């Protein structure tokens, strides 16, 4: 009986984490369509190919190098050992965390869209998936979590013996991705004619489809971050929901009913809630999500129109800054005084979030600057004008129409 | 050991209902794309925004007012109390039932498409989500279920001590939504030039995508209506499948291979099967679904061409009348004599279904008539001709193309 | 306590297999959009209708005839007996295996696209779903598994008492579908002007959407093939992932960054891994997937350009030949010497895979040849030039635009 029970518990855990991995995998289709809808028609194919092949490269690098760096486990043993006595739980653990790692190139992709060379960016993605992301991951969730992720570790000793808390990756995933993207976008420079003519997004339905796929999968992203079925929490689900709603409605109001901001506002809310989704009150999550959308809408305007940084999908304000906000907000709205569960430190959240953004921005700068100075990262003027689809993939998004 | 078992049981229940909520949440993307494909290009963005923001407003109203009305539970307590000793099961219960409540504005949206003002309709949606829907819900599934939902209650005393049975909402959700929509559509009036020129749907692939998303998620809608993993029933899944197939193939034949009817026929079958999916035989479900599609195809023609009621997506025949048919059909095909499980009453189903449609039609009339007489519910002629997208959202569905 | 445990185990099994069925059901939306994107605009509606209605016909035939042939179980008993004491597990078992059976017409559909009559092809699909597929299924997984599927059966006596192994259907599903399609495509003949003018695919985003839906659902296809939650295997999930990635990246390189091949390459990897996903090492799966994509890219060129067989979606190389490769590869990379789990026979895999392809090709030839000689299977020249959408469904994919 006890044996049967333990077997069912193990099986349920494998299923739980596998479902999480599948949901977050499906979010990558969301990244793809969000970008397809947000770029011009001549770059839609490139968006699709980048997301799918970055997924492929990330899988291999994270399997061979990144996951071992983060968790100290290697998979280069016979299949029977991989399966082990827990029905291959460690393999779905890898799969789940891979889906997070693969967000890094997917986030960057939206910022550098329409004018980046294909292969140099593959190289950048490989470096992030194999080294940059896993190393930071190890500090919070992995084998080096004594630095940031445990109460009696380095940060804990500063923050009242409270560890840096990032339940589902506002900071570890989204801010790292968004802050890597910022220097990449600046180094790459704006699209040709971006500030001398009018460039518009191509397809709101595809953009919306991308947003929906991301929103749906996000409940797997956040809830399955428990990584153990007995850690499942209805609070995480509800906070995710209310932050998404807060982001949607705040974007509706602040943007004066602009469809692109509304669909991205839902994402802003979800990005901000990841870190503290297990400790905030739903009303707190609503506020955190609403603030996130306001940050996104306002900062996207400042970034792209005033600072003239051509961040096509707004990934720096959306994932970078809102991710940082999520890390900090966890230290505010997670407090018992605000209806939260408690056990979080404002100072700890602030320090951890700032370390992450500095680390990411520096790494992003070094990698893209080095690539620019060696192989070059930007399409030729001629290729950019033809469009990434024809230049890189020798095909248009609607080939019959183009005949 | 018993403690461990109970914990796994609780966790499995939370996961079960969360998956249901996620599936029905994904159906809202289906509502969005079904409408995108069925309206003209100049109203596609409006379709997308309505579904997403109605979801947001419904979430907040149902959280604060609607769910407490239906179930007598409030969430305005600290997060630790929300999480409770059952891992936040009550929160996923809310989430699951929210996904049902949010079907009301999503259904109405398809009927009033292309000419309704944005904010007045938000107000209507808020009233339905906060008051109208939850009150009826309470009579069947909630704290006032002694009226319709219990064998020894008011209706039961009439129907041979058999309660009104609506397993997954043919009546509570779909007929309420569809019968609210009917007066709204009539009060609003047909689109300009609807009956003096030719208006066609814009995009069959998006319409089909919407239908697929709805069909896939529907298995969560019906199966997870058990609300408890130990209530899971393969019969509910199979009946859903066969009703969908019955609807698809009947629409194929009756409509002479018309793609829009075929994709909506699948939905007709699914709407009709909700109520009795747990008590019918699969062959009965096939018949119920086939009849549903015939009702939809024929009545949509009568409604829109003969009665000249411009119900854009046919939500009154589809959700309203077919929902009512589903309530009644449960009392027929659920009988043991027809291979069903039994325990249902034809009279009880008939009375319950009729009460619902009268209640919904009256409430829909009152709300939309009041809004029309106060703030107005219809776009100006000029705005309607420009299209809801430009008039309300200042953007087209394909902005680059429109340049 | 033991009763409670057994109930949860049963419920978990029903849920597990239902989730699998839902995932594979969602793959049919993937088949639909893969075809929508790959055909010309004038055949998009036909693609959508074929997939949805073939699903409907297959459901009924497999329910009444096919499943009983394969597993010796009939469902023509009262609903209470269907529900039984296991919460209707047998019904979700049917649902899950139906989703496999329905792949047969979905695969064929992509090969014969744009010029086949509607109803004759429905008849063909009915024959495959009711008889041809279930009979072969019975030899491997069903009531006649003593022929191929058990160690001490007919094939086992040849292959060292090792049964033919096909965990999730590289051979039983994909190669059967693909090898039925080959004679159908040849008998039907190429599209008009296929080899005298330029014909191009219509929509890469829809093609990519189809591929994503297939890839996501595939984890249900493979993992839930355990058919029992306690059989869940993280190794199956990881092998599926790595084969998909191997296929994606090999197609990227071999096709020189062609978006259509890259998105189909992912599918090639997934088709090849089904058979041995439970016994191979992830590195082996990566190789198997990469080889699959190379086979697909090269053979598609030979088939369609050199042999002038107008296989629109390349279903013979993709599902047929790569499916066969998957059956054989299981006998290679499943060996312990290559890091696999062992217990598979190269000879057994080879024989089983060859029997399947011969059986499928012969059945496909007989059915389509008979239909051609009786009712005819091809649209008139006039109808083909107008397009299948207008000719069969009296509607275009974008009716407003066509006004």
Keywords:
homotrimer, 70% helix, 403 residues, 0% strand, Ammonium transporter fold
Describe the structure.
The structure is a homotrimer of 403-residue chains. Helix content of chain A is 70%, strand content 0%. By secondary structure, chain A is mainly α. Chain A has a single domain (2-402), classed as Ammonium transporter fold (Orthogonal Bundle). In chain A, α1 (2-38) packs antiparallel against α9 and α11 (259-273) crosses α13 (315-333). The radius of gyration of chain A is 21 Å and the shape is globular. Chains B and C meet through α1, α9, α10, α11 and α12 of B and α1, α2, α3, α4 and α16 of C.
Quick rundown:
The termini of chain A are far apart. Chain A has one domain: Ammonium transporter fold (Orthogonal Bundle).
Ordered list of secondary-structure elements with their pairings:
Three copies of one chain form a homotrimer.
Chain A: H1 2-38, H2 44-71, H3 79-83, H4 89-101, H5 103-111, H6 118-140, H7 154-158, H8 170-188, H9 204-223, H10 234-254, H11 259-273, H12 282-306, H13 315-333, H14 346-374, H15 381-386, H16 388-393, H17 399-402
